[in-house]
Amino acid sequence: QSLLTQPPSLSEAPRQRVTISCSGSSSNIGSYPVNWYQQLPGKAPKVLIYYDDMLPSGVSDRFSGSKSGTSASLAISGLQSEDEAHYYCASWDDSLNGPVFGGGTKLTVL
Amino acid sequence: EVQLVQSGAEVKEPGQSLKISCKASGYRFTDFWIGWVRQRADKGLEWMGLIYPGDSETRYSPSFQDQITISVDKSINTAYLQLTSLEPSDTAIYYCAREVPGGDVDWFDPWGQGTLVTVSS
Question: Are strands A85-93 and A105-109 parallel, antiparallel or unpaired?
């Protein structure tokens, strides 16, 4: 059971917008920024969003992140088939004294 | 190009130990923490531990601290993850990743390609 809670799966049609939620507590998201990772099938994870809402170089601006209180969200607009992947939120946790990941959300583009 | 290249897949029997390597290139190895992350089949990511190659300071997740040892060899820019007393439940892909300092929170970038470990009798 992860300290960060994500919906296990979501599906949406191409060209639509989807939002993935990540719920934590005061010992993690409530106190520290959130990062998001994308894991394409059979590949290693890749950082998608860092520090709540920052896009690394090369990441499409169809991806955006936000945070409020002890929850964070990843939004993907203009969905494409290539966005089918697992998405993980991550932060720091005081009780773990280390990084913590969400359980992951499998996104299916219908 | 910053790159982490891990050693190949391993098949072990219960009770055995193994050591996975992670060779870094494209940056100053001693300046960035390296983390290890486990991913069991169809499961999420679990942080195992971190090491700072500059002075070999380590931090372990409480969930793994009794079973793993993380080390480095600075002379060859390589980090290692050693697992002992393997059980079938240790069957997983193990990733190394460079930790990028961000102030209040760090992130992992890039990641190695992963090492599949299978534990079976």
Answer: antiparallel
CA distance B37 to B16: 20
For an interface test with B, the pick among A51, A53, A55, A87 (most B C-beta atoms closer than 10 Å) comes out as: A51
Task: Render pLDDT for B21-39 as a digit per residue (tens, 0 to 9).
Answer: 999 999 999 999 999 999 9
Report the pLDDT averaged over residues B60-67: 94
* Whether A99 and B108 lie within 8 Å, measured CB to CB: yes
Which residues of chain B make contact with A28, given a CB cutoff of 8 A? none
- Encoded amino acid at B2, one letter: V
Residue B118 CA to residue B109 CA, distance in Å, equals 26
Q: Do B107 and A47 touch (CB under 8 A)?
A: yes
**What mean pLDDT do residues A38-54 have?**
96
On the question of a cis peptide bond just before residue B110, with omega within 30 degrees of 0, the verdict is yes
**Residues A5, B44: Cα–Cα separation, whole Å:** 11
Q: B112: which chain A residues are within 8 Å (Cβ-Cβ)?
A: 44
Mutate to test the interface with B, among A50, A96, A105, A106 (most CBs of B within 10 A): A50
The pLDDT of residue A47 is above 80:
yes
Dihedrals φ, ψ of B5, to 5°?
-120, 120
Tell me the backbone φ, ψ of residue B88, rounded to 5 degrees. Answer: -55, -30
